[in-house]
Amino acid sequence: MNDVITTHHLTKTYGPRTVVDDLELRVPQGCVYGFLGPNGSGKSTTMKMLLSLARPSRGEITLLGRPMNRETRPALLREIGSLVEAPPGYAHLTGRENMVIVQRMLGLSDRQVSRAVATVRLQEHMDKLVRAYSLGMKQRLGIAMALAREPRLLILDEPTNGLDPAGIEEIRGLLVSLAEDGVTVMVSSHLLDEIDRMASVLGILGRGRLVFQGTRAELFDRSTPDLLVDTPEPGRALALGVPAVRSERGLRLSGLGDDDTAALVRRLVGADVPVHGVRRVQQSLEEVFMDLTGREGLL
Ligand SMILES: Nc1ncnc2c1ncn2[C@@H]1O[C@H](COP(=O)(O)OP(=O)(O)OP(=O)(O)O)[C@@H](O)[C@H]1O
Which family does the record assign (predicted)? Predict the structure, then answer.
């Protein structure tokens, strides 16, 4: 599978602060790539660098198989649709007038514009002022603007921000169907659940660094399942200073490898705490993310 986005040592510093740190992104063709991270972890800055809206302090970007540089930039950007700030568009114009501006700017055909509008299902609202649109309609108009050029790559920064569950569901369905048609979609969010339900590949940022990249299954492979210790006397185990929380049948511990598990069992048995069983259970996706991002409040 070809990668549509690759970066090498991609870094952004603001003064003494490194906000994007040595990223090696690999975004495969035709997937929804979920770019996740807590607020302030560097998602927007990364996407802006991919779109030449911010200049990298260091590193290289390759898009659609071509290195991004002064010569290739104009042609590459023509093939990329994006939504990176709050919904674009002039509020005092209608949806249609906004689309005409995009059409003229990019030299698009009527067919391209009407297809994009139909894809986001805004046909019936094109003669309303954008000011009167709901947030979801504004986001859909923004996506129509990004789609009209029939991009091979879509880069969307938090496109579901502020939408209600029905609006989120609608955007999610739209992005998945675009990917099925071969468009590569990179979409950022700080909402784990939302990304998990649409992305087939995940990139997770924590404090500017890529802490994980791969499929959901690979993510679970990397995590250490929690340990459940069945004991009728969890209080005595906790009194020993064992780093556990109480669970239904005893105790639950996170992040314990095999050696630590053996040491724990020895310690409990040595202290005469009855151990009826020791099992592993998979962490929830939330817990895996929390561990990776340093529990910075990813939802
Ligand atoms: N122009 C700038 N000058 C200085 N610092 C900046 C600038 N732009 C972003 N930052 C800082 O870089 C860090 C990363 O910001 P960024 O917006 O990329 O994060 P994010 O993951 O997209 O977060 P959010 O979900 O809140 O948008 C933040 O600490 C932010 O304050």
Answer: Belongs to the ABC transporter superfamily.
Instruction: Enter the ipTM.
Output: 0.94
| Residue whose CB lies within 8 A of the most ligand 1 atoms, among 11, 12, 18, 19, for a mutation test | 19
Tell me whether strands 66-67 and 32-36 are parallel, antiparallel or unpaired.
unpaired
With contact defined as beta carbons under 8 Å apart, do 117 and 126 qualify?
yes
Ligand 1 centroid from CA 210, angstroms: 15
117 and 237, same domain (yes or no): no
| Best residue among 12, 13, 14, 205 to mutate for probing ligand 1, ranked by most atoms within 8 Å of CB | 14
- Residue 56 included in any domain: yes
Q: Are residues 179 and 274 in the same domain?
A: no
Residue located via tokens 């979801």: 136
Q: Which atom of ligand 1 is nearest to the CA of 157?
A: 22
Which of 197, 220, 243 is the last residue in one of the domains?
A: 220
pLDDT in tens, the chain (299 residues): 589 999 999 999 999 999 999 999 999 999 999 999 988 899 999 999 999 999 999 999 999 999 999 999 999 999 999 998 777 788 999 999 999 999 999 999 999 999 999 988 899 999 999 999 988 889 889 999 999 999 999 999 998 877 778 878 888 888 999 999 999 999 998 888 888 888 999 999 999 999 999 998 888 887 888 899 999 999 999 999 998 999 999 999 988 889 999 999 999 999 999 999 999 988 777 778 777 777 554 44
User: Does 189 share its domain with 240?
Assistant: no
The reply to whether 47 and 185 lie within a common domain is: yes
How many domains are there within the chain?
2
State the Cα–Cα distance between residues 38 and 75, nearest whole angstrom. Answer: 33
Full residue range of the structural domain in which residue 235 is found: 224-281
pTM for the whole structure = 0.83
